[in-house]
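Hey,
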Amino acid sequence: MTRRARWAALGAALLCFVAGHLSAPARANEPAPAAASDAQAREERFLYLLRTYPERRPDATLGETAKLVEQGPFAERDRAIYWIGSARLALGDRDAARVWFARLAREAPDSVWVQRSYLGLAEAAAMERRFDESLRWYSRADLSSDATVRERARISRPQILTLQHRQWFAWLCAGLLLATSLALIVAIWRSARPSERARAFLPPTELRILAPLLAILALCALRQEAAPRAATLELCLFGGGLTWLSGSYLGTRIVARTLPRRINYALLALLVLACASYFAIWRNDLVGMVMETWRAGPD
């Protein structure tokens, strides 16, 4: 090989070396086929879990979906996070649902699924009777770019307002019940002689007459479902307590000598008892059932 040929070969090798170094960064920035394949596999696995969700225990499907989210990105990762939050909410685990919805807002703030999570957060707040917070989430959903989200928010808002008004009325009834009870206790204490104040709070005749009926009603309620049973027992407790205080009060002083006063006292007692009934029904989520039974009649 001549000297000129050797210099030509050396120059060619040098050019190849420089070209290789210049093209290395470009190759490093290219997606690795293995990584793309893993993301596609996670995507397919998620869609499979979504299709076959009813075929296995919910916790198993949700746990496997959570593992896919932790393993890395894939095309519908934001949808997977939203789906886990929605499923947790449907299962009654509101705290876990909030955690997943917060993660979705943090990791994919521009996703349409974040806007749909507003509906889930509003529903979770409504389940806990925090209706002001629920309405705030629906207000955010009203600004969504998704027409479906806006429509669902529009439909749900009147329902939440109705529930909020029922809550306000229930607290008003509870306040009236508490105020009446305290007023009767103070009146009994002030009306009785100092030496007879302890005896003034003994069970009156009215309670001894009513107590067996309340006991029978409470025993019958034990065979009912949880919510009606609790409401009936609370109503028996409220009714017994009001009868006790009212009877003790009537025993310490002459409340009504004329018919109008007697009628007013009876009407006040009925009003307080009605407030106690509504509060017990509301506290056990039975207002809707009672209203529907009143409208359609018993089965």
